[in-house]
């Protein structure tokens, strides 16, 4: 389905093919997803949501479109690139709030390679999917880079910091 969206998009069409209720199964239930595109091993687009608010099939299709054609960090995918692109769909499990009283305590609760993590402080927010552990395998580095992504200082640990972990089921 995600590939159909990309192929239609490079042909100048926007295509959403709703699965039929009998064969769609869990795709018809609400779900949260991220779609990640890589070209020759480098990030080419990644868009998703943390909240399950629409049917999973629609969430995946919308994020496939947005990752390929509307990620502000990249130009839209061209037809000539399709053969060089790999696509990964990450279906998120419901988030679990983490209770902690210090940065050391938070770090001790992280499961490298397993947990996705969302942090919030004031208006600052960011998330890393579990796959980011491949680039940042040390919990300290993982959290520092996530704080920077959120717009926080690397050495800051705001008193109002909230954190949630989640898992993913991934499909390539």
TrEMBL record:
<dbReference type="InterPro" id="IPR027623">
    <property type="entry name" value="AmmeMemoSam_A"/>
</dbReference>
<dbReference type="InterPro" id="IPR027485">
    <property type="entry name" value="AMMECR1_N"/>
</dbReference>
<dbReference type="InterPro" id="IPR023473">
    <property type="entry name" value="AMMECR1"/>
</dbReference>
<dbReference type="InterPro" id="IPR036071">
    <property type="entry name" value="AMMECR1_dom_sf"/>
</dbReference>
<dbReference type="Pfam" id="PF01871">
    <property type="entry name" value="AMMECR1"/>
</dbReference>
<protein>
    <submittedName>
        <fullName>AmmeMemoRadiSam system protein A</fullName>
    </submittedName>
</protein>
<dbReference type="InterPro" id="IPR002733">
    <property type="entry name" value="AMMECR1_domain"/>
</dbReference>
<feature type="domain" description="AMMECR1">
    <location>
        <begin position="1"/>
        <end position="172"/>
    </location>
</feature>
